[in-house]
Amino acid sequence: MNADIVKAAVTKSRPGQQVGLGLEEHYSKSDGTTKIYVSEVGGLFREEHGTKINTGDELLEVNGFKVSDSEQFPKGLNDVLQFLKGQWDIRVKVCKGSNDDSGETSATELSSSNDEKEQYMDLKGLEDDSELLETPKAK
């Protein structure tokens, strides 16, 4: 694994603005861990940072919170996405080129459609979308 750590930040200029960061969750059967990887870069992140953040980079932190923190993000990727949607200033830390492409994958983007939301809910075994609306609170 390449240990290059990169930080990048963007600021939304209007409510609901998409930051252009697609994320996917990978579950490793071998060690039972789940990691979040960048699956797409566009929008603000591409405009402001070019190729600094790329597909396959492992997301380590958002706004200073480790994405592996199960207290902050108990529902993993879903909570990370909800957290990002609610923020104006977004800072991320990634490990470059970390994706080893092993294990199972579930993908979701910040601009999810209803079909993608339903697929994600099925994948996570969520009964209704009220479970999707919970946003982690800062410690």
Which helices and strands, and how do they pair?
Elements: E1 5-11, E2 21-27, E3 34-41, H1 43-49, E4 58-62, E5 65-66, H2 77-85, E6 89-95, E7 104-109, H3 114-124
How would you characterize this protein structure?
This protein has 139 residues and is of the alpha+beta class. It has a single domain, classed as Pdz3 Domain (Roll), CATH 2.30.42.10. It is 19% helix and 30% strand. It has three helices and seven strands. The protein has helices spanning 43-49, 77-85, 114-124, and strands at 5-11, 21-27, 34-41, 58-62, 65-66, 89-95, 104-109. Strands 1, 2, 3, 4, 5, 6 and 7 form a seven-stranded antiparallel beta sheet that branches. Strand 4 (58-62) and strand 5 (65-66) form a beta hairpin. The chain is globular, with a radius of gyration of 14 Å. The model is unreliable at 105-116 and 132-139 (pLDDT under 50).
- CATH topology title: Pdz3 Domain
How many helix segments? Answer: 3
For the termini, the CA-CA separation is 31 Å
Averaged pLDDT: 78
Could you say which structural class the secondary elements and strand pairing correspond to?
alpha+beta
- What percent of the residues sit in helical stretches (DSSP H or I)? 10-25%
Top-tier CATH class: Mainly Beta
Inertia-based shape: globular
At the fourth CATH level, what is the homologous superfamily? PDZ domain
Number of strands: 7
CATH architectural grouping: Roll
Low-confidence stretches: 105-116, 132-139
- Helix and strand string, N-terminal first? EEEHEEHEEH
Could you give a short account of the major beta sheet? 7 strands, antiparallel
Using only C-alpha atoms, the radius of gyration works out to 14 Å
Strand content: 25-35%
**How many structural domains?**
1
